[in-house]
Amino acid sequence: MPAKHSVFEKVGKKFSNQRISARVRSMAVSAIKEMSLLAMEIPGTVSLAWGLPSFETPLAIRQRIAEELLTNPDIGKYAPPPGLPALKAKIAERLAREKGLPADPQTEIMITAGGMQALMMSFMTILDPGDEVLLTSPGFSSHYEQITLASGEPVGVPLLEEEGWKLDLDAFRGAVTPKTRAIVIVNPANPTGTVFKEEELRELARLALERDLYLITDDPYEVYMYGGQKKFYLRSIPEVRDRVISCSSFSKEFAMTGWRVGWVWAEEGVINQMLKVQDSFVICAPTISQVASLIALQGSYQPTLDMVEEMRQRRELICGRLDSLPELFSYQKPEGAYYIFPRVLPPGLQNSVDLCVRLMREAKVVAVPGSAFGPTGEGHIRMSYCMSREQIGEAFDRIEGWWRKEKRVS
Ligand SMILES: Cc1ncc(COP(=O)(O)O)c(C=O)c1O
Questions:
Q1: Closest atom of ligand 1 to CA, residue 190
Q2: Chosen domain end from 272, 298, 324
Q3: Does 69 fall in a domain?
Q4: What secondary structure letter does DSSP report for 264?
Q5: Which of 111, 116, 184, 383 to mutate to test the pocket of ligand 1 (most atoms within 8 A of CB)?
Q6: Mean pLDDT of the chain
Q7: pLDDT 10s digits, 89-101
């Protein structure tokens, strides 16, 4: 029984149900990957589906890792399961210097195979079957699937769309039950691009303290903020420091999505429990990629600053193109990350899976159905603007052509 929003199910992919765990049967492949994989089967599609930036890993990183490959005798060997000590030390040094957040690299940081594995380990470590985790709705579709895989129950708490997708703190309070174990917060958010404010986060921290909850932060987009805001870290609140499990990643900050390196930062007792999970899943993050990540932290930061500036331009481009389709979409302008989550206006097009399948087949444009991002995601689609400007332009030329035809027939 694949999950209700499964696009693979909709297009008739085969799913065995016999001798498959109920846990896995109740999941879907994240719709982001479903759409991207389906699009690969259709020649000539333009994809706004996956948050896979167009940038190459900076040349300096690739050149240095090429040298390391030839000269470092340990590059092809397992790393210590918690991660290369030099990389952990560099991460901690940066946290203290740039964010004023002291961490003990030895006991509080573990290197993972991407932020995704850091998140999965967090859920595996803290959840018992049936435990509930509060997520924003809309929120990152993979969190919903990961919590299900860890035998937990994802509970989507609606954001306030008309107020720029703000947190609804009363709704969060109302959603806590005796089974709630954690709140997950992505800041800047995926898929809405919201940057949550200090007051909102302090209120969540109070709730976590009152109700004895973990706060899981997932911050792969923290460098992609466009309004000059200063990011607020839940971990900077001393009373909740030991309840925060922070998941971070090299993927988006350094254009290193394929290297698969992230890290988790939590108090020592949690990290020691997590190490059991790490050892069972992957033993260690790939050594070569950990070395590449260390090189990234030692090198120039200019390539990242250039990517952020380019993304700012792409945000303006996609908003401008959406503005020229006022009968089809309305949207809240994102303040960070590189996604936009427009509402679909024509009543006949609001089933987001149907719309995305039609756009893919008829306009050859790939977007992600909003229903994958939580109970209130329906009626929206997610578009990423991390693709080149040419791709964004081409996708919108096609959507405009498709919409002109659609209006004629309907
Ligand atoms: C909110 C969020 N968390 C985690 C990830 C996973 O990133 P990583 O490449 O570090 O596994 C993504 C990737 O798109 C994301 O959007």
A1: 1
A2: 298
A3: no
A4: E
A5: 116
A6: 95
A7: 999 999 999 999 9
